[in-house]
Design a protein that fits this description.
- By secondary structure, the protein is of the alpha/beta class.
- It contains 18 helices and 14 strands.
- α3 links the parallel β5 and β6.
- It is globular, with a radius of gyration of 23 Å.
Length: 493
């Protein structure tokens, strides 16, 4: 089967989580004998890797995140010629999905779309700290995002199947008007990366094995990392002089979080190692004792999935979305109700319970690795998609009896103009909002501004361009303690 993957990240130069996942899915489909065509914005960089075919559209950089390109309709050939695919699999959450609906109507191509971003909890990216602190602005902005979700429901209904990554999103999208079939499929894990034995211990030498709490994620608002620091400083650290907290990652809030950590009184037990390469994360998971997660914005928690695959028990807030689908209370971790007056106390008690009981932690570790392999092994995920693709082909055949392309050229042009107009207006508005926010100073700022803020706060010179020039923590690579567990060491895994 020729599968067209529709994404904002057709180029191998982008290294975000969604981009890595999309390319991994393409590789796994090819291993199963399918061919993959990448559809998305022209990034101006290398064409899609491994000699894959591509159908590229005009791509303009989003000003507050210039590595992300927003697709606009055109050129003419990309719009008017039938793409060389048997099915389109949308992995995008922008109005470029209009093209998938257009291809469905125009050529009768089967279309499935994967819901990837919960817009209401990510809409803050266009708000500065000052605007975000205004409750009226924050609520109004979220309402606009919720209204946009209903627009996407109509776009999804122009396809043959909506894939959600958590069972909790089935009812969510039914409530917003989705009437086509909905299937639940999580994201796959790369066993070559996350099933290998752990190597060096990346934690500081003074961070005792058996007492290590770990968080891995982007340092941004929706991850609620200030909440993690509060929990640690007020509830966990005072009761145990050996417990430590490590926050792997970087982002817009990194400097703010570093400053908050310095004010906790427990800064010597909090570690900010910065970004880690994807293939290094298994060492962090393998040498940690407990994974913490307080985000309430995940359609699917990539890092939660990685931690569980590596046999790392997890304590998380019950988001009613992606993480609640992944963490099974009493089996591979604990979920804590985020809306109770005693949420922080309960969360801390669960952390303390697992730190104090190595046997319970060990049982959770085995369950975590086992459950992840049942749901996230790439072979299982791709087989599910193969079945969904076949169902989508039957659905399309039943619902698009006479594609527009088989009728008059005038209807063809009218259909293209209608879809391109909706697509252009919606994505053009997104680009304009990003530009206004960046130029007026009401957005979160660019990566350069972020690095400047971090450098000012830490009173150190800016690193030279390039990831290899980032400062390496002085203690990196000097640890000698043994890992508490490894997925490869777990019985039966």
């Amino acid at each position: 089967m020729r599968v067209g993957i529709f994404t904002e990240f057709p180029s191998p130069t982008v290294q975000s989580g969604p981009a890595i996942h999309t390319r991994f899915l393409a590789e796994q489909l090819e291993k199963r004998g399918h061919s993959v065509v990448m559809l998305g914005p022209d990034t101006g960089g290398p064409a899609p890797a491994n000699g894959r075919q591509s159908v590229l559209f005009y791509g303009l950089p989003f000003m507050t995140h210039p590595n992300v390109r927003i697709a606009l309709p055109g050129p003419y050939r990309s719009l008017m010629e039938r793409p060389p695919v048997d099915v389109i699999h949308g992995q995008t959450n922008t109005a470029q999905l209009e093209y998938a609906g257009y291809a469905h109507e125009m050529w009768g191509l089967p279309v499935i779309n994967t819901h990837t971003v919960h817009l209401p909890t990510h809409s803050h990216f266009l708000l500065s700290d000052r605007l975000y602190a205004n409750e009226t602005v924050r609520k109004w902005w979220r309402q606009q995002a919720e209204a946009t979700e209903r627009v996407f429901a109509r776009i999804y209904n122009r396809g043959d199947c909506l894939v959600v990554q958590s069972r909790h999103f089935v009812g969510y999208w039914r409530d917003r008007g989705v009437t086509i079939p909905i299937e639940v499929v999580g994201r796959p894990i790369d066993p070559a990366t996350f099933s290998r034995r752990v190597r060096r211990d990346p934690f500081p030498a003074g961070f005792s094995s058996g007492k290590r709490l770990l968080v891995v994620c982007r340092h941004d608002r929706e991850k609620r990392l200030e909440n993690v620091l509060d929990l640690f400083a007020r509830q966990v650290a005072p009761s145990d002089p050996e417990v430590t907290l490590t926050l792997v990652g970087d982002g817009h809030d990194h400097a703010n979080l570093y400053g908050k950590a310095r004010e906790t009184g427990y800064f010597d037990r909090i570690h900010f190692p910065g970004e880690a390469r994807h293939d290094e994360l298994v060492d962090w998971y393998g040498h940690a004792d407990l994974f913490l997660y307080t985000s309430l914005s995940e359609t699917f928690g990539n890092v939660v999935n990685e931690a569980l695959w590596c046999g790392l028990p997890t304590v998380a807030l019950d988001d009613g979305m992606g993480v609640a689908h992944q963490v099974h209370p009493g089996r591979n971790g604990f979920l804590v109700d985020p809306d109770r007056p005693d949420t922080d106390v309960t969360f801390a008690r669960r952390v303390q319970q697992l730190l104090a009981d190595p046997d319970l932690r060990g049982r959770f570790a085995i369950n975590a690795a086992r459950l992840s392999r049942e749901t996230s092994h790439p072979t299982s995920v791709v087989r599910r998609f193969e079945s969904i693709y076949e169902d989508a082909r039957r659905h399309a055949a039943d619902h698009v009896r006479r594609p527009v392309a088989s009728r008059s050229r005038l209807l063809h042009l009218a259909c293209a103009a209608r879809s391109a107009g909706r697509w252009g207006v919606m994505n053009g508005s997104v680009l304009a909002l990003g530009a206004v926010a960046a130029l007026s100073g009401t957005s979160r700022g660019s990566a350069v501004q972020h690095d400047e803020a971090v450098a000012r706060y830490l009173d150190q010179p800016l690193p030279e361009a390039g990831p290899e020039a980032r400062p390496v923590p002085a203690t990196a690579g000097l640890y000698g303690s043994q890992p508490s567990h490894s997925a490869g060491d777990l019985p039966g895994i």
